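HUMAN:
Could you generate one sequence with tokenized structure?
ASSISTANT:
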Amino acid sequence: MIKARPAFLLLCAALIPMLVLAALMGWFVIRERQTSIANGIQDRALLLSAAVSRELEIQIQLLSLVAESPRLDLPVSRSSFAETARRLKAKAPQWEQIRVTSGDGDIVLSFPPLRPSASRKVVDQESHDRVVSSGVGVVGNVVTGPGGKAAFPVRVPIQRDDRTKAVLSAVIRPEMIARILRDSGLPTGWSAWVTDSRDRLVAATAVSNLEARPASEFGLAVEGDRFQLFDGSSLQTASAALEGTPWQVRVGLPSAVYERPAQQAILLLTVAGALIALLCALAAMLLYRELRARTAERESVANWQRMDALGKLTGQAAHDFNNLLMVFQSGVEGIERRRNDEERVTRLLGHMKEGLTRGKNITRRLLSFAKRSNQGAEHIELLPKFEEMAPLLRQALNDSILIDVDLPADLWPIHADPVGLEIALINLLTNSREAMANGGKVTITARNVSEGSFEDKRVQGPIVAITVTDTGSGISSSDLERIFEPFFSTKENKSPGLGLTQVHGFALGSGGIIKGASLQGHGSAFTLLLPKSNAPSLTGGNAADANFPQCLLIVDDTPASLDSARLALDGLVADIIAARSGSEALELLQSRAGIEAVISDIMMPGMSGIELAEEIARRWPELPVVLMTGYSDKLEAGAAVSHPVVTKPFTTKELAAALAAPRPGLPDLTNVVRLDQSTRS
């Protein structure tokens, strides 16, 4: 399944756009089909309009031929008119009546003859007046005659000497129009009807008893071309005017048939959308699992690299510590054998003291890889610091590499961890050394940068820029973006790749940044931007001359460490009180008077040293507290501590400086009168 996941992802990536395209094409085809149906309705309406117009034109032409016959020369003989009309009706059985009317609309002659009681006036006077005024044949509106039957007239003028003398009319039943509609070959379910100029129904395929009635009694237009019949059916219609007449033909098919393509389009889009959504969800799930699998794989490789790097680091650390332990082992055995040989004991103690310093530096360097906070930062004068580090920096290179340190005399001091600065510079020089296998030159320069004059907005305030430049092989632009990543390395010896990472962590922890630049084949330059220090450095005299308190409380949960601290201060402090926990220390402070200062380990079970210091500051704000630690995850996580911190192992000189350090959180008690003098007792 894991191997098949990429194939499924590719399949989904191919299917999704294909489905989208297919759905859009299907929707377009279906919509075109609906448009084709609408065009088909319109074409049917035009065909029926042409058929009805042609039939009415034939009736007008036939009647016009009769009107020009000499038999209708005025005055017209009744017998001659009756004979002519009888013959015409035999030829045109759809003519219900044939009449001759005067210019005023009075019926002069009629075949069949009118009943004596019948009106002698034409029913559709409007069409009669149009014939008289225009002198051309017309088709009148459908009307209901005296007998209650619907009919419409076809009228032509009887003209003599270019003047209309009378009007010849043929009254036609609507069945003629209905027969044309029925014989037009409309598909099953379709309907067609004809209306006159007064929107009265002339004929329809669906009904036969609404002729001459308003079309609104047949059905109503609902919306656009939608027509709702009174039998409950709904039609999608199209209309066309009859040429030469005010009549209209309307053709409709059931709305359900017309809307079926739209419903199919909606169904198609719904199904396609659901399928696309399902495929997208499946692809997202597969992609998520693939990313997780690849992330796990990368983490596994990174963990292996970390373990490999950790193995190398611990191996080197073990080698260094074994060397130191050998110094102490030899020293202890030598002192035990010749305790009275003062010269030998002094020399061995010197070696052990030097080993102690080396071990402390090794430990601090190891911890610098895990350092996240700026604990231990202090005021550093760079000129004397570089003079002090000169031998160490020289050792980081080899004999084929020249080093040039060019620092201005007015270089500002910085606020940073001195050991971290030392390690960062050694790492940069080591990096330069490995880039110059055949020798070269390293230049260390520094300059003061005033506030706002540096283009990088990540650093604020005045800073000091320390630049290490080499003439090595350089770094490619693609690798330059990754050089500060943990375990990333381009070196042939596959070194752990932690040096520049440590420099980057030191810069960020100090409130600054590091920037790298390189031109491949011409060397690299790394610039450390560190904040300027405005505080004076802490100075202290000899431990014997330090102003230690007369009564000191030491708090540590490790008996050996507690006893060692007592022995170190023996003779410097008159009264040393020991406590093995924070709660015991609070009890001693509550019960005993005269305690002038507290030294507490940070990492203790129950109440930590930081919590103890906060409680002491709350109860006895004037009592100084110094914290000591070998390593504290809270401090490395950036926990704010308002008390001085000394790192184990520390000297009595460092402890004296910490006890003498000012306490920024100490309240001003100048004008406070304590009511209960036994508060600390």
Summary: The first strand starts at residue 95 and ends at 101. The CA atoms of residues 241 and 248 lie 4 Å apart.
